[in-house]
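hey can u run this one w/ zinc ion bound, need the structure tokens asap thx
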Amino acid sequence: MDSNSENPNKQQPLTRKELRQLELQRRQQENRERQKLISRREFLKKLFVAGGVLLGGGIVWQIGSRREEQPRPATPPLSLDSLKRDYQDKELRLNSVLERVDQAFVSLEETLHGKLQSISEEDRAALMAPIETYKVNKKNIQRNKYSILISDLEARGEGSLRSPTELHITDLNYFFIQLIEDKTNVAAAFAPISRTVHLNGRFDPNNLLDALVVYHEIEHARQDAQVRMGLDTPQRKLEYNSFYTTGPGQRGRIIGAFEQEAYLKEVMVLDLLTDGRLREDAYKGKLDIDFYQQRLNVQQDQREILRFVLDGARIVYTSDTSLKSYAPSFVNFMNQQYKNRDFEIYAVNNNRLERVP
Ligand SMILES: [Zn+2]
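ok here u go:
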């Protein structure tokens, strides 16, 4: 509160009030803009920070540390028994989520198969890739990460908590799945360091936005595998993981092209699912969020997530962006979204990561 009695504006109290009002409105607007569009990235940022990893130079990739899974310092220490019960409970809950996601992906695949004829073979393969990646990972017996945590706890007791054990995966197409522990409307997030897709317990197979968000994050798992396959020396593997290992207070990092690709695919899938209506609405400049909310069965608290996808669609279709060529306005739009959220953006050039100014 301003308590300055010598305020030069005292003779015009109304003006001063108005100014304040305007300032308040401006700040509220700024805040709204900042919060606009999911805090999907914010959530992911937290995951990046939670990571922390050292990779050995072995032939097998050692993925992630267990630091994320250990009880937080703020919570009272759990006994090994109650920790095990906690993991068992989460294992069951995740299995029920996985059943729903499996179901949603089967029906997404079926629906898309009937509609893919309208696009080129190349685009078809690109749009199916995340679905294929998800299917491949169904064979991963370590898919439910809690089962690994439980057996590690059983085998190593307290030791499994004190010294993080690295997870070994022989097939880079595989990734781990865990629950999102925080209360959030975000359906999924991908943590590259531990190659873990985090799923929200409230995933609804009838909510197409939920499915699209998981699709987007699986695309990140696929991209991550592609990068890792290209890293041929222990040094480069180490560099890749330290890229994502940002300390507290440091800005999160993203690979710009990966977000562009994932969002573009998400938009293209949504266009197919709506039989081209998305593209048409984007051209007309009439993307009615209420219509899409209803059509996709989106929850009220997910409207901002939906809005982001619709904004992306508008740019994609009005800029003639395709999987072969990203219009500069689309690239700028995406990069700006992440800059607004305080991310550093990087580009991949010859398997090297370079900061985008
Ligand atoms: Zn993303």
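The longest helix spans residues 80-113. anyway lmk if its weird
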